Every structure is written in C-alpha cells, then in structure tokens.
Amino acid sequence: MPFSTDVQARAIQLMLGRMMARVHVDLRFSDTPKRTQTLRVETGAGPVTCVVYRPPSTADVPPPVYVNFHGGGFLVGRPEQDDHICRRIAATAGCVVINVDYAVAPQKRFPVAVTQAYDVTAWIARNGPANDWDGSRLAVGGHSAGANLTAAVCRLARDRAAFSPRLQIIDSAPLDQLADPATKQSLIAKPLLSPRLMRVFTAAYVPDPADRAHPLVSPGLADDLDGLPPALVVTAGNDRLRDEGDAYAKALEAAGVPVTHRVFEGVDHYFTHTGPVPAAKEAIELMATTLRTALSA
C-alpha cells in the first residue's frame, strides 16, 4: 500500500530540512558582518516570523528594503538556508533585507503561504518609518518555491495597487505546477529535482488539481503579465525548471515588463547554495547589483 502524500511530505521535511540549511563553505560569506533582529508580523493567515538584516549605516536617510522568500518545495521551512544571500545583499546593495519564515505544507496548504507572503510585504511597505527603512523603495525576490511566491506577491500587488515593487527576483522558480514533472527535461542524467520529488511537493502544497492552473500557483500559465514590476530572472542550465523560467522571462518581456534574464550554464537547481562556487557568487552579485540600481533614490 503506497504511503499518503502527507506522509511522504513529512518524510521529505525530515530528510531535506537539515540538508537544505547547509550551504557550501565557500559561500557562507563569513567575512560579511551579520547585523540582524527578529520581528513578528500578523497576517490574514497567522503570524509570521521574519529576520531583518541591516546594512552598514552610512546614509542619513532610511535605506530601501528587499523582501526575501526562501525555497524548499513549499515543504521545507528553513529560512536560514538563505542567510548567506541575505547578509551579502544587505552589505553590498545597501538595503535592509527581510527574510520571511512563511508556513509550509502539508501543515499549511495553498493559499496560506501566498497570503502570508503578500501580507508581510504589504506590512513592510506601510511600516518603514517606525522600523528605519524606506517602504516606498521596496523589492521582492526568492529562490525556487520562494521565487514562485515572489511572482504571486507581485501579481497581487499589481491587482490591489497597495504598493509597487521596484524589482522582482525570480531565481530557479517552479512556474507551471500543472504539467507532469516527467515532461520537464534536464541536460544531465540525474538532476537534483526528480519527477517523484516534484510530484510530492505539488500534491502537498496544492492537493486539488483544479487549483494548479491558478495564476498564484502557476504564474507561468497566466496571460495577463502587463503591469508587473521589472524582473531579474535567473535560471540554471541543467535545472528541470529552466524551460519554464526561460519562458516566463520571454512572456514578461513580451508583455512590456523590463526583464534581465541570465542563464547560468552547467549548473543545477539550488546552485546559489551548493555551488559551483564561482557561478553562485556571480549570481548573488548579479542580484545585489541589480537591486542596488533598482532601489537607488
């Protein structure tokens, strides 16, 4: 008798949780000071803990702010896996970085993570003066599942006109949750993401197949992309998710959205955390420099 999706999902949480919190030793940026604090934000789907990374204090005006959503297939709640990226961006882009610990499946399913991600970002945009950041100069971004949430936040921000991100960073995102993962090809024999693993991710997060074409679940299937924020789209050459990321970049550009699209050849999913180190450092630097330009006064 096969195990239920929830049992499989919980097993993956246990198996991948600690592993995903580990980052290649040469990507830890231990020479970059870490100035952090913790805050708790109330949302329509429960309270959310966030870690705030502060940049070096050199300006007389409040710095801009970048909201980061970690990856993990919507199942693994390990925001600390992005510590190296958050601290590097804070230090080199000169912005406050807020790393969001959103709820994960199977304990919390769609749309909980989307609601939390949007509500936290809206709160950050509104509450700059009390927290010493400039909420009017705001960007959002994420990695893998977090990049999917980034696209959803930007869509809701456009539709509700509550705030206007200056940039969205889409890194190695699952953007089509409707397609069978077996149809998503890689250039290598054994990529990090297997069809079986991807099916568990999707089934745990969005158990009703009828919801999987929803634009907040599968942004890559939406045909109304005009008016979305400028985007930096990063894809990995050997990733099963590369094709949908490449297609999303093209679709955004066709809709009139300013897009910077960079394919990192010869690397797989999650390379910004596990390496190869030169490509990972180049990608993180690209994120930081693009953010610095987008958020500059």
Task: Note down, in words, how this protein is organized.
By secondary structure, the chain is α/β, with parallel strands linked by helices. The protein has one domain (5-295): Alpha/Beta hydrolase fold, catalytic domain (Rossmann fold, 3-Layer(aba) Sandwich), CATH 3.40.50. It has nine helices and eight strands. It has helices spanning 5-21, 83-93, 112-126, 128-131, 145-160, 195-205, 242-254, 271-274, 277-295; strands spanning 36-41, 48-53, 65-69, 96-101, 138-143, 168-171, 231-236, 259-264. It has an eight-stranded mixed beta sheet, sandwiched between helices. Helix 1 (5-21) packs across helix 6 and helix 2 packs across helix 9 (277-295). The longest helix is centred in the last third of the chain and has 19 residues, at 277-295. The mean pLDDT is 94.
